[in-house]
Specification:
Blueprint: E1 3-5, H1 14-18, E2 24-26, E3 31-33, H2 43-47, E4 53-55
Antiparallel strand pairs: 1-4, 2-3
Length: 56
Amino acid sequence: MAYFIGEDCVKCGLCADTCPLGIITEGEDRYVIDADQCVECGSCAAACPNEAISQQ
């Protein structure tokens, strides 16, 4: 089950900087994780200061 970035995202970019695969990109109102490529390592969720990232 891939990770998902929710509405609490403030677009700080820490998740994108932390992702070992580089599959997190800046979206219009929040960052977006490519669910097809996510390996569920959890590094993005651990880096998020707002706890906006969870598994879906």
